[in-house]
What we know:
By secondary structure, this protein is α+β, with helices and mostly antiparallel strands. The protein has six helices and six strands; from the N terminus they run H-E-E-H-H-E-E-H-E-E-H-H. The chain has helices at residues 4-17, 48-53, 70-80, 114-124, 146-153, 161-179; strands at 22-29, 34-41, 85-90, 94-102, 130-136, 141-145.
Amino acid sequence: MRDLSMHVLDIAQNSIKAKAKLVAVAFVMDGNGKLVFSVQDDGCGMTPEFLSRVTDPFTTSRTTRKVGLGIPMLKQSAEMCGGDFGIESEVGVGTTIHASFDTRNIDCIPMGDICDSLLTLVMLNPDQPEFLFQATSPTAEASFDTRQLREVLGGVPLNEPDVIAWMKESIEEEFKPILEVS
């Protein structure tokens, strides 16, 4: 993965495949350049046996290939810049993945366009699951919840062009000031 935004898409896609009804993506940026990224879902979860092997690139739930690089590469990206990685999962409850990054470390991968990645998740999955995006820093916080948006729109599809344009503007306005690393 070239940047963190690609990891966001990959991990959220895992949640979608796990039949999650809600996927919560969160970013917490502290004042010292530490970024914690997490994805929490209420999907099918993993057995303890599978969970113990999930960071091995030769462990995957896919039947079309024998490697699964997303989670191992996220772990590697976090650890190579002085961050850490963790995953918790329970069958029938869901999964939480979190990774921290020292964004000031020379080995930290670029952020990429996280706002576009968040918008892409909603555009490509306009009916389900629901998404909750949150970001916090010492000076700001942002939240975007498709459940609230659906309530306001009253049946207008989330992949309607005017809705997409509004979501893009809203996500960028709220999240860019928090997630841009200088």
